[in-house]
Amino acid sequence: MTHQGPLSRDAMAYVLAGGRGSRLKELTDIRAKPAVYFGGKTRIIDFALSNALNSGIRRMGVATQYKAHSLIRHLNRGWNFLRTERNESFDILPASQRMSDAWYEGTADAVFQNIDIIEDYDPQYMVILAGDHIYKMDYEIMLQQHVNSGADVTIGCLTVPRMEATGFGVMHVDKTDRITDFVEKPADPPGIPGDEGNALASMGIYVFNTAFLMEELRRDAETPGSKRDFGGDIIPYIVKHGHAQAHRFDSSCVKSDSESIAYWKDVGTVDAYWQANVDLTSTVPELDLYDRDWPIWTHAETLPPAKFVHNEEGRRGFAVQSLVSGDCIISGTEMSNSLCFSGVRTNSYSQLDKAVILPGCEIGRHARLKNVVLDRGVTIPEGMVVGEDPELDARRFRRTENGIVLITQKMIDAIDG
């Protein structure tokens, strides 16, 4: 059966944004991983929400849990344009012990506890999304496949080299991409039929008919010993007792003319976060943020333009291969392969190389920073050098095995003198 017209108008996107994000270390001390800044203007969660909006979905819910304040504030500021009178909705759903005395116990429970709110909107389809990945995807294509295949659940899958799939939930599929087995983080992942060098890894994206999902959530809630988790409980049960279908990201990935690969990134470690941001400074980056056909929506502040000042030898304000946001003043600073969020101030004779600088930071005179991530509002003292002495960096700051240095204001304050 082929459905006429967009299915997205009958769908609700439900974003799971409650994760701790502990591998991002101090970047998630005060904010949830989906609220972490990315790409100069946006937050990580803006990608999943923008995909939903650009796909035509006009009903959205976001389940929040840990350290949710900055996330909720961002959503209230940046995503408050959806209007009930246009049959649109945007709900922020903090864990509030609505169905029991417990917080959200798992990803499935984060939906189950809000069943009454979802049923009130009466969407025909549910698109369940992780709120912490960077990618561009047209969910309408996935919805069409879901309906045409008659599946109980359709799971978004990445094609990855087989032995790189050990950290994912991996699908064992037949020749029609029907899922025959689902294994969580296998030591020896199953290959794809006819393409044994690759495996299909779960993206944490699921499409369900709403009525079916509600039945499954209620069944799972009454199952002793369940962890109330999609990947751990709901999906394996449907694979065994129903029809689970794999949807390949390659077929719904949104690419502009300049993008050559199906871009998907989990920026869940300091190294991956730094790398994905620095990659954006390439002449032709793998992720095109300038694609007007698929904009990434966010809270857009009203800011003055970026400014570059001073033009004398050794004290020239310039940036090459870099992204510089509004309200930045690059004063007598050499900047290369770096990314500045809004409101950054740099002072004379300083040098920045491969630096990811979050909003509101100030760089003192004569500072030299290389391979760093500065958390929001950090003030770098005059003359500080980071990225040249690994032992000193590791003593003072968070230094990864790959030599990326994460700096917070607390770390700066702890340095004697």
UniProtKB/TrEMBL annotation:
Alphabetized PANTHER family for the sequence: GLUCOSE-1-PHOSPHATE ADENYLYLTRANSFERASE (PTHR43523:SF2), GLUCOSE-1-PHOSPHATE ADENYLYLTRANSFERASE-RELATED (PTHR43523)
HAMAP family attached here? Answer: GlgC
Instruction: List its EC numbers.
Output: 2.7.7.27
Which reaction equations make up its catalytic activity? alpha-D-glucose 1-phosphate + ATP + H(+) = ADP-alpha-D-glucose + diphosphate
Domain Glucose-1-phosphate adenylyltransferase/Bifunctional protein GlmU-like C-terminal hexapeptide per the UniProt entry, residue ranges:
304-407
Q: Which GO terms describe its molecular function?
A: ATP binding; glucose-1-phosphate adenylyltransferase activity
Report the sequence similarity comment from the record. Answer: Belongs to the bacterial/plant glucose-1-phosphate adenylyltransferase family.
Gene name linked to the record: glgC
Q: Which GO terms describe its biological process?
A: glycogen biosynthetic process
Q: What class of enzyme is it?
A: transferase
Organism in which the protein naturally occurs? Pontivivens insulae
Part of which pathway? Answer: Glycan biosynthesis; glycogen biosynthesis
Its assembly, as annotated, is: Homotetramer.
InterPro entries according to UniProt: ADP-Glc_PPase, ADP_Glu_pyroP_CS, GlgC_bac, GlmU/GlgC-like_hexapep, NTP_transferase_dom, Nucleotide-diphossugar_trans, Trimer_LpxA-like_sf
Stretches assigned to the Nucleotidyl transferase domain:
14-281
What biological function has been recorded for the protein in this entry? Answer: Involved in the biosynthesis of ADP-glucose, a building block required for the elongation reactions to produce glycogen. Catalyzes the reaction between ATP and alpha-D-glucose 1-phosphate (G1P) to produce pyrophosphate and ADP-Glc.
Report the protein name in the record. Answer: Glucose-1-phosphate adenylyltransferase
* UniProt keyword list: ATP-binding, Carbohydrate metabolism, Glycogen biosynthesis, Glycogen metabolism, Nucleotide-binding, Nucleotidyltransferase, Transferase
Q: Where is this site: Could play a key role in the communication between the regulatory and the substrate sites?
A: 65, 103
* Binding-site positions, alpha-D-glucose 1-phosphate: 104, 169, 184-185, 202
